[in-house]
């Protein structure tokens, strides 16, 4: 047997998806129940009809038990059903309660609705009845405050007769409704049910100070009901994450449902947060709200919601309440985004003082440890939190949130207290304890074991200024077994860190140097936590850190004027010595960065000492990079003889560099002898001759034949600019002439001889100048390659 169905009906059904068909079927049932209610219940009802009204209304609401509709379609059915109840059932309840000489009170209506056997219809009807009860309780309270004698009337009616009893009755009935709603375990049905109940009771809750008869305690009852209501909604919403998703279609439906319901829950939380945050009497509920949101089972939703709630706080109020706000925020990793945003906001408005900074540090470190613990126990969960960012204007950080937290604290400390290292040291010690949990109480001991100079403080006093530094030097002279130190250090096992985080850690440690006072730069590098972190760094990371130090010094040199430097030479040199000790490890790996620091501090004599003691271990490239900087830094600091010694140590820098420096040395020596420069050392004629001799020897030792002509012209050009020692002038010129005549590149002999004639002429030896000029012409005629126009101009100059 087969039932015939019209073709047009089949075509119409095929065009609709199953959800639409199910929704239309449920709407048809609802229409039938609504018509039945209207036919059974007259417009004017009496108290005797209460049970009949409740029964008929429960049949209408029975359609909301459906569980096959998606949330968006369920909402359509829900709006129709609840709209009918509010427009028809609620007026009937009011008629019954408001009738003259009626013995039925709102409490009786509430009790009657509780007798409905089906959970969902019962709770919807109770929601309407609770609204009526709260309305009556508010009326009783207001009359009592107007007329205390009204208490006797209330007692006769067996109603709460004191303000305290009324408040207690409100609290109990709201708590009861909240607990009864726990019977519903379907997320969508529960969320819509709670939305309806709150909508019915909110008009009768004291959520504002507008009512002259309401008190803070009355307002708190309403706020706490909102809190409990939305916490339960949120709890059920989190359960939707575990809905079945066996196919792609099921997964898509689940995510649509989650997003739709989340918007409802989120709006409720934001309304409550706005209400509590802006009411000073309800701040404690706002803190409780933050804690409840933090405990949300969905970390991404909790992170977003916490971020948006904290955005509601005004900056000044936040600074005053910072500890109470941060305590719930920093209890779990979901608060990381909010914490960083709070720090940035307070810093932008200059609202961070020592008290606020202390709370930021304590709570920030607690949050950092929570993040690290989560990374160990559930790295996938942490990854979701890190990658969560709904604000496209924000740039996602590549480093872990706990590192960004410490970075923010270090930036604040260095900017607000550039002359005080204690704040920075506090944040750095917390950083060390996060990475090395076993080092608690042992940071100083471990740092001293790694480097006896750890914690060195150079004080700017004439008699006692270097006492601690000298003590550190004495300790350094003790024989330290590097193998034993490494073995002991390895006993402290660090937390696992990604390569990206390790690289970011270098930036975090280097950040404070840009904000610190110049005089504290060297001491920062030897803070105990910094010493430990440098030991933790790999070779490549240590090189990167030293490059950061070098760049920071270039931006903020710690050099002083010559007058300041001379007044406290030991202090400034000791500062520079500490920086040089830090940078020495990269002298061969990054020679340019090492050379950069020499002009930026007063370490030239110490660097020269390193060259003299460890010259064989320093590469030729490093010597070439630092040659000029070291030479001129020694001249700047008044060490003329040391500058001369420096030239001996940097022969590997190359002939061009060495020849240039020798000529400049000759120039400085000449001016010093004339009294144009003031140096502490005595200058002799022998030094002038030795300088010229070494320059010529440097040229003669140059191995590249093709470079010799250019180098010789360069040497002659430099000699033209200085005054040669009178006693040795003839010998020097003869040696230069021999170099010109003996050039292997014969084509260049005439050119160099022409340059030599100018040198003779400058030194007042006209006969030799003419002879050199004639010989130059003969050599050019014989071998060719006359002076170009450019070379001729340079020779004349």
Automatic annotation (TrEMBL):
* Sections of the chain in a coiled coil: 458-486
Q: Name one GO biological process term.
A: intracellular protein transport
Q: Which GO terms describe its cellular component?
A: cytosol; late endosome; retromer, cargo-selective complex
Q: Which domain of life is it from?
A: Eukaryota
List the Pfam families hit by this protein, alphabetically.
Answer: Vps35
PANTHER family with a match to the protein in the record: VACUOLAR PROTEIN SORTING-ASSOCIATED PROTEIN 35, VACUOLAR SORTING PROTEIN 35
Per its record, how is this protein called by name? Vacuolar protein sorting 35
The record lists the organism as Trepomonas sp. PC1
């Amino acid at each position: 047997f087969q039932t015939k169905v019209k073709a047009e009906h089949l075509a119409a059904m095929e065009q609709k998806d199953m959800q639409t068909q199910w929704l239309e079927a449920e709407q048809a049932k609802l229409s039938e129940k609504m018509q039945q209610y209207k036919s059974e219940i007259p417009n004017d009802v009496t108290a005797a009809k209460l049970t009949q009204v409740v029964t008929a209304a429960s049949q209408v609401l029975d359609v909301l038990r459906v569980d096959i509709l998606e949330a968006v379609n369920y909402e359509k059915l829900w709006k129709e059903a609840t709209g009918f109840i509010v427009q028809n059932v609620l007026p009937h309840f009011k008629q019954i309660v408001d009738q003259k000489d009626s013995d039925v009170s709102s409490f009786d209506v509430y009790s009657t609705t509780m007798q409905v056997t089906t959970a969902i219809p019962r709770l919807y009807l109770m929601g309407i009845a609770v609204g009526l009860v709260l309305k009556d309780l508010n009326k009783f309270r207001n009359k009592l405050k107007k007329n205390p004698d009204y208490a006797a009337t209330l007692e006769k009616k067996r109603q709460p007769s004191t303000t305290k009893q009324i408040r207690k009755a409100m609290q109990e009935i709201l708590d009861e409704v909240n607990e009864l709603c726990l019977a519903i375990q379907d997320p969508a049905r529960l969320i819509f049910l709670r939305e309806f109940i709150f909508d019915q009771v909110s008009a009768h809750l004291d959520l504002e100070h507008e009512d002259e008869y309401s008190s803070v305690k009355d307002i708190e009852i309403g706020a706490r009901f909102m809190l409990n209501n939305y916490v339960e909604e949120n709890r059920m919403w989190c359960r939707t994450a575990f809905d079945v998703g066996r196919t792609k279609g099921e997964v898509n439906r689940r995510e649509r449902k989650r997003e739709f319901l989340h918007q409802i829950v989120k709006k409720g939380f934001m309304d409550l947060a706005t209400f509590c945050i802006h009411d000073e009497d309800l701040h404690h509920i706002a803190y409780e709200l933050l804690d409840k949101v933090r405990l949300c089972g969905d970390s991404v939703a909790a992170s977003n919601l916490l971020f948006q709630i904290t955005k509601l706080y005004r900056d000044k109020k936040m600074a005053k309440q910072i500890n109470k706000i941060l305590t719930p925020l920093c209890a779990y990793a979901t608060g990381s985004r909010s914490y960083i945003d709070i720090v940035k906001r307070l810093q932008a408005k200059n609202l961070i003082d020592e008290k606020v900074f202390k709370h930021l540090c304590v709570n920030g470190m607690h949050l950092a440890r929570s993040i690290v613990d989560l990374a160990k126990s559930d790295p996938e969960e942490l990854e979701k939190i890190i990658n969560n960012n709904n604000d496209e204007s924000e740039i996602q950080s590549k480093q872990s949130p706990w590192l960004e937290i410490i970075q923010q604290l270090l930036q604040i400390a260095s900017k607000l207290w550039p002359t005080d290292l204690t704040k920075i040291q506090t944040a750095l010690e917390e950083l060390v304890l996060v990475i090395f949990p076993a080092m608690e109480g042992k940071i100083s001991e471990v740092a001293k074991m790694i480097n006896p100079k750890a914690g060195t403080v150079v004080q700017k006093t004439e008699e006692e200024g270097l006492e601690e530094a000298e003590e550190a030097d004495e300790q350094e002279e003790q024989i330290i077994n590097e193998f034993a130190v490494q073995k002991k250090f390895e006993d402290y096992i660090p937390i696992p860190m990604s390569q990206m985080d390790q690289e970011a850690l270098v930036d975090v440690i280097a950040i404070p140097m840009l904000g610190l006072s110049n005089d504290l730069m060297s001491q920062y590098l030897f803070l105990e936590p910094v010493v430990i972190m440098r030991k933790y760094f790999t070779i490549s990371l240590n090189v990167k850190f030293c490059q950061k130090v070098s760049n920071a010094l270039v931006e903020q040199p710690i050099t002083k004027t010559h007058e300041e430097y001379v007044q406290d030479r030991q202090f400034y040199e000791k500062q520079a010595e500490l920086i040089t000790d830090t940078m020495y490890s990269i002298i061969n790996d990054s020679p340019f960065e090492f050379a950069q620091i020499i002009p930026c501090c007063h370490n030239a004599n110490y660097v020269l000492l390193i060259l003299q003691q460890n010259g064989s271990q320093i590469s030729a490239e490093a010597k070439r990079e630092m040659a000029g900087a070291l030479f001129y830094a020694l001249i700047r600091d008044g060490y003329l003889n040391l500058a001369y010694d420096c030239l001996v140590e940097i022969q590997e820098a190359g002939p061009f560099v060495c020849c240039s420096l020798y000529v400049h040395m000759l120039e400085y020596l000449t001016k010093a002898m004339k009294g144009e420069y003031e140096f502490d050392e005595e200058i002799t004629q022998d030094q002038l001759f030795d300088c010229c001799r070494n320059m010529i020897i440097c040229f003669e030792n140059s191995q590249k034949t093709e470079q010799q002509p250019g180098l010789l012209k360069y040497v002659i050009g430099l000699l033209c600019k200085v005054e040669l020692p009178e006693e040795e002038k003839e010998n020097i010129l003869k040696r230069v002439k021999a170099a010109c005549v003996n050039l292997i590149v014969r084509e260049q002999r005439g050119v160099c001889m022409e340059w030599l004639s100018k040198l003779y002429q400058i030194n007042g030896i006209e006969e030799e100048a003419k002879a050199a000029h004639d010989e130059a012409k003969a050599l050019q005629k014989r071998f060719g390659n006359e002076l170009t126009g450019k070379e001729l101009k340079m020779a004349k100059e």
